[in-house]
Design brief:
Layout lengths: L1 E4 L1 H18 L6 E4 L13 E6 L9 E7 L2 E5 L1 H5 L8 H7 L1 E4 L3 H9 L12 E2 L2 H9 L4 E5 L4 H6 L3 E2 L10 E6 L5 H17 L6
Parallel strand pairs: 1-2, 1-3, 6-7, 6-8
Antiparallel strand pairs: 3-10, 4-10, 5-8, 5-9
């Protein structure tokens, strides 16, 4: 069973929970590969894929089901928030504390507008081309990042990251589980087992 996953899902959700699937279905052999955001997936070679999109994928020959929401909130390390005076901060305070950007500044621009903060023409802060790099920078206390709540659920529940506001952005995005339609009965059976497990486990902690 070949499963493609964008890096955020692979690192933050799938791999920490994969041992539970393997324990339940020891006879299903799996191969996990990266799916890169924005690149087409060849479903002749891939059976299931986790992707991130602002609408349901409609590629011919596949079925897409919403997996987890993509709504994002500002988060930072406990050490950083301790120096900011609290866990619920204004937009101006968050801006002054130092921003971390995922790919570009558009996410923070949208969040600051929604928080009714003055938005400078250019937002300072390093840009990371991968969510896992952004998350690592936030965990190490380098600034405040906008992160999808669904991908940092374990970080929030264990206190590795602290949510600074209830204001969300990127609500139009979702994570999807996309399935092909292989002919082999054994693969179809394995796919069904995996999908059933995924939608049962999606809101459970990794341990």
């Amino acid at each position: 069973l070949v499963i493609a996953a964008i890096p955020s899902v692979a690192i933050c959700w799938l791999i920490p929970r994969l041992s539970a699937f393997r324990a339940r279905f020891p006879d299903i052999e799996i191969r996990v590969i990266y799916a890169m955001h924005g690149r087409d997936i060849d479903f002749r070679d891939v059976h299931l894929a986790f992707v991130f999109a602002d609408s349901t994928p409609t590629k011919t020959g596949v079925t897409a089901r919403p997996f987890l929401p993509g709504a994002s909130v500002p988060v930072c390390s406990p050490a950083l928030v301790a120096g900011l005076g609290g866990q619920v901060l204004s937009g101006a305070t968050i801006l002054a504390a130092g921003l971390l950007h995922d790919t570009d500044a558009t996410g923070w621009q949208a969040w600051l507008h929604k928080a009714a903060a003055d938005v400078p023409s250019q937002l300072p802060g390093p840009v990371f081309e991968d969510f896992n790099l952004l998350r690592a920078a936030a965990l190490s206390g380098q600034g405040i990042a906008l992160c999808p709540v669904a991908m940092i659920h374990d970080d929030l529940s264990t206190g590795r990251l602290v949510q600074l506001s209830s204001i969300t952005v990127l609500e139009q995005f979702n994570y999807y589980l996309v399935s092909g339609h292989p002919a082999e009965p054994s693969i179809r059976t394995a796919m069904e087992a995996f999908m059933d497990w995924v939608f049962t486990a999606r809101n459970l902690p990794s341990v």
